[in-house]
Design brief:
Helix content: 25-40%
CATH architecture of the largest domain: Beta Barrel
CATH class of the largest domain: Mainly Beta
Largest sheet: 6 strands, antiparallel, barrel
Structural class: alpha+beta
Radius of gyration: 18 Å
Oligomer: single chain
Number of helices: 4
Shape: globular
Strand content: 25-35%
Number of strands: 8
């Protein structure tokens, strides 16, 4: 925190904000923290940082799911032909192991944020964060669990869960 203050003293607003974002990523932080950082990013015209702060705020409220995603090779049926945009715009379907009454896979929507790169190329591999439309259905997932991504009937990618953190729902924590 002292580093951020030092940069603020020298009017290095963007660097100070980057330090505060890194601190929020490294330690548990509350929704209000991410709201403040998102507003600061907006005022500094840092749209990607602002979107990241909104994403992180949603993770605080709904949960964190990080996976190692391997997309199928471009020549395979069902493969992507274009990169997955990195900032949460793609909303593919996911098979997390549930089945319908008819015995078919029950697929769920989750947005994707690609970590450490602007997008994920067809056939590529990378760590991504998932923001499920219905996060309560995903809470049984844990590290090592394998799920599949679908954009058509064939599998478009295979993901191994790296990390999950779900908020404790009051009245459901044993207390």
């Amino acid at each position: 925190m002292a580093d951020a203050t030092e940069y603020l003293d020298h009017d290095e607003w963007e660097v100070a904000l980057d330090i505060l974002v890194e601190l929020g990523d490294a330690y548990a932080s509350e929704s209000a923290y991410w709201d403040l950082l998102a507003e600061a990013a907006r005022l500094l015209w840092l749209s990607r940082t602002e979107r990241w702060c909104h994403w992180r705020r949603a993770e605080v409220a709904r949960g964190l799911i990080r996976v190692d995603l391997q997309l199928v090779e471009p020549g395979v049926l069902g493969a992507r032909r274009t990169p997955i945009p990195g900032e949460g715009h793609s909303r593919p379907l996911w098979d997390i192991g549930d089945v319908t009454a008819a015995g078919h896979p029950d697929l769920y929507v989750a947005r994707i944020w690609v970590e450490s790169q602007p997008d994920l190329l067809p056939g590529g591999r990378g760590v991504v964060r998932l923001a499920p439309l219905s996060p309560q259905r995903w809470q049984r997932l844990s590290a090592g669990y394998v799920i599949t991504m679908h954009e058509q009937k064939p599998v478009a990618g295979i993901a191994t869960v790296i990390e999950t953190v779900f908020p404790v729902i009051k009245g459901h924590d044993g207390g």
